[in-house]
Each structure stands twice: as structure tokens, then as C-alpha cells.
Amino acid sequence: MRTQDNQYFKFLIINIILSLFVGCAITDPRMNYESDRSKIISSVFYETNDSAITKKVLFIGDNQINENHGYPAFIQSSFADQFVAVSRRPVQQTIFGEEILRQILKSEQVPVIHLGDALNLSCKSEFERFIKLMNESNLEWVMAPGNHDGFFTGVTLGTDDIRNGGHFRSLHPDYGRDRDVWEAVCKNSIPLTKPTLVQDYLEVLKNNSDKRVSTIRSNKNCAHNIYQANLINESYSCIYSDKTRKDRPWASFIIQKIDISNINKNLEKVSLILIDTSVYENSLLFREGGAGVIGGLGKTQRAILEEWLTNNAKAGILTILAGHHPIKQLNDKDDIKFLTEHSKNRSFLYYISAHTHSGAIYFHDKDTQKEIAEINLGSIYDSPIEYRYFELFRESINNQRVVAHAPLLRISDPNSKFDSSCKNIVLPKSGEPHSIETQASAWANGPYTAKLMEIRAELHLLNDLFRNFPSSSSDLLNSASINTINHLLVQVKSQQELTKKCRFKVNKFKCEKKWGIDKAVRDNILPPLRDIFAWERTRSVSDKEAYSIYKACQAKLASDADLNYGNNIWRKMLSGGKNIIP
């Protein structure tokens, strides 16, 4: 067997083993938590005479906007999806998934704290779509980077393969190096590395603060900024080049201090520190589990966090920490020691996290002085779609204790306004080319064979969309786009006939290349599809709200169906009963 094949199956085996241990500290997600110094109320309703000492804020994460129109890679194939359930999702999710986030933001009038994985493949186009959507909400918002924000598929920077310095071959048999694969799947854009992600996000903070930013200290790589804005107080960031391994791009990070105090009552000061948990002292590779499995703070960020916690304590400011990875996934012993010691000293009240795609309350070292209460979010992309509100109270009967009201909200709950909006919306029927069953059926196909099935499903979804929500009569591109879709469907069918010649080939990618399937998809099918996708997002319809809800419901229903469809004995056996491996 070839070395590449051995490497790939090694990667699959590592993920299967790791998945057996995911979520081992999770309690019931609706369970309340109480200790002598803090309390968590996770029920939706909380009637109290206690004083709210923070603003009500919305915590969200893991919406994973996806670049759907680059070249395919084996890691996104249906075969890989049998082992790692998020390798491949229904097209309804990948092209409409961000509409769920849009609907949630529309229903809120509170500041938003995003705990990472805003992106999926980490392409520049994904980040641009995310920023546009967040800013359209007109809500104050900030984010902590997740492992998918700056790392290819949430796992690696491909740093051992950067430029001419790398010697490792890729796990992907269809391209040469990990960086080559990243560039291929982001072909409609460019890869967004961790250093670039931090730099671009700093520009967002600057623009959203009306450019009222002052730098109080900086050196070659790092800068400490103060913001004159209602939500963010300050940030400290370090940005390293990604030209070579010696530049240590994986050590780039941003840590932020947010003021969530209840300014109306002016009772106490409460600071939320957003940590970057995708920071590493050494390079991460696919072969080692990667950023999706291992979180880290890094020495420099720990030093800044130490300073901020100490200053807050001296000033009598209550502190809450938040970051993407759960505490159990912080790999560095120094990180765990740091957090437990500061919990013992009561430097912070709670740690809030995301990443698991299944919201819960964790508690670490329960009934000890080092006890840490962790409030974990769900995902607003993968079922069950979840998010949390957060509000902190000073308990009236025991003013030495605070109470966190942090309900876990699911949009599938019977009382959910979102769920009721979806009652009359249905997915394509079984057997149709864009049904969930059809999309999931070709699990052993080559990358372009699977890509053609995905493209065909998207074209049929767009046809449904235009039929149910016609463009306004003034839209001159409407007829041309519909004609293009029908023309593309003919081309896709023709290429799918050719893929049958590769059905029983071991190296399907080589076979697809031999028959010109890869060239036809790249040159003749994807470019016009990208144009149609861009037009669809700006086209004029009579009822824009109903249009957005329809797309959000298609994504939500597809997410539910994908979870149920994948909940089979084969996947359970391979993944230890877990359908989601972040």
C-alpha cells in the first residue's frame, strides 16, 4: 500500500480513537449548578429580585460558513464522512447555513459574543461573508477565534509544507502538499491563515470602533490597543509571518477585554476576557490530531491574561473568561495549572466555551478550592442547533455569591419561534437529486464524483428557490441565470456518466483526471456556478424576510436529517456513539 494511503488511514484511526473520549465530563445540558461562591441557572425562565450586574449578552459559536465552490479534496469526500461526521454536510447547510445566524441576530437586540469557528475551511471568502452578515445586524459584537478560524479545515496550517521548505507529503492523494490542498479548496478565494485572520479581525475592531483606537505599547510582532467603544476595552495581539516554519505562524493570537457591566444600574464592574485557545508553541499537523483536538493559550497570552486578571482583582472588577476550546482540550499542562490556580484564587467566576457542538455544563475539580464551572455552548450549524444568553446577578440573600443565568436555547424546541416558522417547509423527497439520502449515498466515490453530486444538488436547490421566490420583474439576470442552471445540469449529467468509468478504480482521482472530469468541473462548471451563487445573494424578491426564513429552515431541516441519517450502527461503531467530531 502506498505511503499516502497509510498516512490517511492513520489519520482516520487517530480521529476514531479520539472521538471515543469526546465529552466525557459533560453533565445534563439543562442541569443547574451551584457552589458556595457561584451558581448557574440554565433553565430558560428565571424570576428573581436579585440585581443584574451585567448586560444581557448573546453567546453563539460554530456557525462555520463554508466556501462551497473551490476544488474538491479527499478529506471532504463521502468516504471520509463515514469516519468524521462533519467532513461533508448536506448542500442545504453549506449554501444556506449562514441564514440561521442571520435569523438569530435579527431576533435579538443585545451584544453578541461569538466564540469561534465562524469559518469552516478558513478561506478569505468565508470570513468576508461572516463579517458582512455580523455588521448587517447593527449589533455590537466581538469574537474569539476558533480552530476553524485560521487553520485549514480547523486542523492545520500546513506549515511543514510551506513554500519550498516542507518535506512531508500530503494526506490528500489528489494534491501534493497540505498547503496545495488548502489553496485548491479555497480556489474561489485564498487561504486565510492564523496571522492573516488576526490582522483582518483587528481591522474589523478598528472599523467597528469608529477608528477610535490608540496603541499603548507595541514591538515588532505584538501590539496592545485601547478602544473607545461601548463593548470592547482593549486587545493584545501578536502576529507572526507564515512564510516559513521559523516564523511560528501558529503562535499568532488575539486576547480581548470586554466590558459587560450593567451601566444602567452602575452596581459593579464585570469584565469578560476573550481568550484565543488556538495558540501553539509548536507546529500542528493533520497526523497529530491538529487544532481541532488540541487547544492552547501560549506563554505570551498567559502572561497578558495574568496581568489583566491581577489588575481586575486589584480594582475589584469581577472577571469571566471565555474561549473556543473546552478546558478538557487544553493540551498544555501549564494552561491547566494556570486556570486552576486562578480559580482557586477566585480571579475569575466562570469559563465559557464552544467547540463541542453539544451545549452542556462542565465542572472541574468539583468540591475543591480549584473548582472551575464551565458553561459550554452548542453549535448554530449542526443539530441540535443551540446558543445561550448570559446575564450575571448578585444574589440578594447571599451577597457573597453571584448567579449566572445562562439558558441553553434550541431552535427545535416547541416554544421556539424559529421552529414554528419551519413547520410548512419541507426538504426534497427521497430519491430526488438534492435529497439528503441521495447526497449521502455515494460514500466511496472519488473527489470529483462526489463534487458533481454536490453541484447537482445545489443546482436543483437553486431551481426550487427561484420557483418559490421569483425575482422581481426588473431583474435582468433572472432568465439568464435560470438558463445557465439548466445548461449546467446537462453538463453535470454528462460528466457523471463519465465517472462510471472510474467506479471500480483504486485511484479514482487519477482516473477522473484521465477522462478530463476534473478539468470540466474546474473550467466549465464551477465558474458560472460561482456567478449564480453571488447573484442569488443580492437578487431582489418581493418578501425578503420569508426568503431568508425559507433558506434558514432548509439548512436547519437538513442538519436535523443529516444527524438522523448518519445515526447508524456503522458510524456509531466507528465513532464511539458520537455523530459530531469537532
UniProtKB/TrEMBL annotation:
Keywords: Membrane, Transmembrane, Transmembrane helix. PROSITE patterns: PROKAR_LIPOPROTEIN. Gene3D superfamilies: 3.60.21.10. GO terms for molecular function: hydrolase activity. InterPro entries: Calcineurin-like_PHP, Metallo-depent_PP-like. Residues 56-358 form the Calcineurin-like phosphoesterase domain. The chain crosses the membrane at residues 12-31. This is Calcineurin-like phosphoesterase. The lineage of its organism: Bacteria, Pseudomonadati, Pseudomonadota, Betaproteobacteria, Nitrosomonadales.
